[in-house]
Design goal:
13 helices; disordered N terminus; two-stranded antiparallel ribbon; Inosine-uridine Nucleoside N-ribohydrolase, Chain A; 45% helix
Length: 336
């Protein structure tokens, strides 16, 4: 009898895990104490807050990999191993909070690990004239490839910064006739196109995450438009929907500081009287129950003005609920 119960529990756990969307994250995030020209640090620290938010929501996802420092900033040539930093900075906070998160909510993995990007030291940008027939020098691209090869489900690749690594993967798959791999991957990108913010109707690509490596951006958009890959473009709905529509003031966000992850979330990038975690739009649309879902975004990389405006407004309407859910989880992390 006991054996049957154990088997049922194992089956139910496996079923629950299978129902969670599989996630792979590419982030340009790095240690925000490293001095630089982007808000006083090497890379914009908004990803720090977005990552803390993701970890508070981690029971909703099957996290397959998180690649950090996927960036082209020359300062990173000698900045030290950023995976070591992240595994200490986020890893220790998560380890402390996950105990009560699992006690009060449940379903959180015991650990979540980070790896350093293969382009961190070289600052390499995607070369449109090159055929990437081998991934020998691109270990974090190869890690995603191997994950897709063994997966029977879609892997959602959340793009929070540079698109060089996703572009290399797509190029490699097409060069090596691995279209089956591309059928198991969908890209969900934050602000690599916007006719409303930074960009314009005439030049929607003139946004930070596309200017960073425009060749990679244009390559992926072209492949999406022609049906080779699935690419959901969120535009600026994270910044101008979730962030702009959020509760304001130190008093509200100080409530997060009771937990370790909540403190990182609140302090990662606090600007204009609220927390900037705009890349988080990529995982809230994946969940689909918070105002905007993938069904509300085209899958061919395009981002029409009317669609972006509608989704921006929807996230504004749901922003307080999103932040209160994060606060509920932050409180659960310390509630005995």
């Amino acid at each position: 009898m006991m054996k049957k119960i154990v088997l049922v529990l194992v089956f139910m756990t496996s079923l629950m895990q299978a129902q969670k969307p599989k996630v792979w994250i590419y982030s340009d995030m790095s240690d925000n104490t490293l001095k630089g020209k982007d808000h006083g640090t090497v890379n914009d620290p908004d990803d720090v807050s977005a990552m803390a938010g993701y970890l508070l929501m981690a029971n909703m996802f099957d996290t397959k990999g998180i690649v950090i420092a996927s960036t082209h900033r020359s300062e990173h040539k000698t900045s030290g191993n950023q995976a070591d930093w992240a595994n200490a900075f986020f890893g220790e906070a998560y380890k402390k909070d996950v105990i009560h998160l699992n006690k009060n909510i449940g379903g959180f993995p015991s650990t979540i690990d980070f790896v350093q990007s293969c382009i961190k030291v070289s600052a390499e940008k995607y070369d449109p004239t090159k055929n990437y027939n081998s991934l020998k020098n691109y270990n974090t691209v190869e890690l995603l490839l191997k994950e897709a090869e063994k997966s029977n489900e879609i892997i959602n690749v959340l793009c929070w910064g540079s698109l060089t690594e996703p572009a290399i993967l797509v190029n490699y798959c097409l060069a090596n006739n691995k279209k089956d791999i591309l059928n198991k991957i969908r890209f969900i990108a934050h602000w690599t196109n916007s006719p409303l913010h930074q960009g314009s109707i005439e030049q929607p690509w003139k946004v930070a995450n596309c200017n960073e490596d425009r060749a990679a951006c244009e390559y992926l958009k072209e492949k999406a438009l022609n049906g080779f890959i699935t690419y959901y473009e969120c535009g600026a709905i994270g910044q101008h929907g979730i962030v702009s529509g959020s509760p304001k003031g130190v008093e509200y966000f100080d409530q997060f500081k009771k937990s370790n992850l909540g403190k990182i979330f609140a302090e990662g990038k606090f600007a204009h009287n609220s927390v900037d975690h705009s890349d988080a739009a990529t995982y809230w649309v994946l969940l689909g129950d918070w105002g905007v879902g993938l069904k509300d975004i085209t899958s061919n990389g395009t981002n029409l003005l009317e669609m972006e405006q509608k989704n921006e407004n929807q996230f504004k309407l749901y922003s307080t609920n999103i932040h209160n859910e994060l606060l509920r989880r932050s409180n659960a992390a310390v509630s005995k």
